[in-house]
Amino acid sequence: MPLMKLKDEELVVESKLLPDIDSIGEIEETQSFIGRKRAVRSLIFGLDMEKSGYNIFVVGLSGTGRKTFVKHFVSEYSQKKPVPSDVAYVMDFEDPQRAKVIFLPSGRGIDFKKDMEKLVENLTEKISKVFEGEDYKVRRKEIDEEFEAEQERYTRELIEKAQKLGYLIKLTATGVNYYPLKDGKVIKEEEYINLSDEEKKFYEENERKVQLLIDAAVENVRKLESVYKERVRDLNRYALLFATEEFFSAIENKYPYSDVKEYIHKIKEDIIDKVTSTKKLQELEYYFRRAYSVNLIVDNSGLNTAPVVFEDTPTYHNLFGKIEYIEREGMLYTDFTMIRPGSIHKANGGYLILDARELLVHPFVWDRLKKVLFSGQIEVENIDTAYGYSTIATLKTEPVPLKLKVILVGTPEIYELLYEYDPDFEKLFKIKVELDWELDTTVENVKDLISFIADYTKENEILPAKKSALNKVLWYSMRLSGDRTKLSMKLGSIIDLLEEANFFAQKRNSKFIEYTDVHQALTEREDRLKLIVEKYDDMFRKEDLIIDVSGKVVGQVNGLTVVNFGDFEFGLPVRITAKTYLGSSGILDIQREADLSGQIHSKAVMILTGYLGSKYARKVPFSIGVSISFEQVYGYVEGDSASLAEVLAIISAISKIPLKQSIAVTGSINQHGHIQPVGGVTEKVEGFYRICKLKGLTGNQGVIIPRANIRNLVLSDEIIEAIKAGQFHIWTADDVDEAIELMTDKPAGVMTKNYEYPRGTVNYHVVQALKRSHDMAEGKTSRVRKKREHK
């Protein structure tokens, strides 16, 4: 195909793609999701599959609306799922170092918590009245008096029996003491020594009997005390149950659930124990408020569907909960009331959405999440306790069964990393949902994009956009995709543009977003980011960076590069030079020799060697040395998009035919000399145009690009106008020879069957230069040989 010059009409975005409307306000059919059919099918399958391990990983590029899509879709899907139970922790009365879990129907947990608080208030008041009542005091007095009477009887009998055996009994706070008596008086130690052997024998024999009597009396008193306590307990039980039964019955009737009934039964038993053992009512009240409270960790009273939770900061405690402590006099204390839930508790019974990158950057979170998903239950454990870094005694929580669908959102790189290096990943996340980053530019897809914009503008009270503004937004979508046949799915960037255009429209007091507002938003955004471009342009203006945009030079061509600063990328021309010399044949890549060349660029240079050899060294060896260099480039050079420019510079250097400096070149070539598409072609064209404008447009300047890159050109209005006015040009080529002819104004020449080129063509001059170099090399070798023979 001959070289083609593009016309301005070939580069504009066709307005016929847009619906026939005056403004977006006329769009009635709106939608939240576009271009997600494959993703929606995969996501529905993952959500419907209730088997373990079928959690979901949503893969997509940043800026494609991954999180928004997932949150909106899962929220809609969750509406057909039931609301899960409320979850509360209460005291385990059998083991206060454990917390027992209670499940209640959704919405009942908060009521139960409030009712238990009222119950505690009623208990305190009622119990005080019970023990202050005359009936209770009379009955308690009877029991106390009977106990004291029996206790005195046992004591009196012990004293009388001991006296008959010649011993005095004394009761002290530390126990029962006994002393020998004689004539009604206690025998002193020195008196006891002077007793006769017969008297001593009498006291020794009776001492054993007194000891037996004391032991029997003590045992009887113990039994008496046990009976006494049991009678007091029964009295308290009867009095308390009678006084409080109405409260407990109301709770049990209102909450007829097995968990609640068991809990209330434990409270009844505990009340009797504590009332019996605690004397002060104030202490009882404090205990009741602490022990009988309900720690409601999951309250679903505000939900109508299964919960959908997005945790944007998935730290260990945010995700899995924690147990808090309070400090008292240098000691740490905790109980079930200080259990704090995590997002996984709140999402249980529904869906938990997490950013995969955020999940992986927080220590221990990924490991714990896997353990939780494998076990199917969740316990609240602090990170130091769970991983054995703490020796502090802590609370144990009863596990909560887990029924949860976890949805991770991340980039392809993170997905591949986890899949490659973590064997557990594919066991737990069996569903991969891929989000496309672009759509075909069809009338139907454009309609969907406009419907999405209509939905967003109506939902967020943005001014309606005119058709001209929508056309510019459509241009921007193509610009983001880098292809006029594709629409970008970086919907976040499109929304940002609409928001900024809306800002400028409101400043004009307009009722619509028009073309001028979108254009201003794009211009203002570029101005905020292009300081570095202005610095480069200043260096070109002062010729600190040297680029010729007119004239012809041998072995020199303007290549095109793209500079990326993260949030902004732009094109820069770069001078590529080639020099030839006799010596070792082949191409010397100066960038590679200086370790400033990447592997792809090194491969491209090797391809050049193969291409040049097959094209020019069929009859004569490639016996000339060539060096190529990117002048004034001190950074790393990577990629193969400069290979067309490099081969032109080499051909010019060998043939001594000068190349136009008014035309810049980009394109990759293969060993057949076919020109292949490259990336960043729009930025490259705009970069060279910018320098030509800076140095002065002549009407002869332009760029050669691969023909396959035509669809990738999404140029600014200014360049399209310059092309229309004939001030700037874009040529497309499929073959190196097409580029040669434009750059030299000479025919390239087609190889004949004898591997020769027509006289006067560029390729002919290259072959002739190679022959001369070969002859010179051979002649020099011959002269050296003759000198050696002469000697």
From TrEMBL:
InterPro entries documented for this protein: AAA_32 (IPR041699), Lon-like_helical (IPR046844), Lon_proteolytic (IPR008269), Lon_Prtase (IPR027065), LonB_AAA-LID (IPR046843), P-loop_NTPase (IPR027417), Ribosomal_Su5_D2-typ_SF (IPR020568), Ribsml_uS5_D2-typ_fold_subgr (IPR014721)
Regions crossing the membrane: none
Catalytic activity reported: Hydrolysis of proteins in presence of ATP
EC nos: 3.4.21.53
Active site residues of this protein: 641, 684
GO molecular function (one): ATP binding
Family: Belongs to the peptidase S16 family.
Protein's recorded name: endopeptidase La
Source organism of this protein record: Fervidobacterium gondwanense DSM 13020
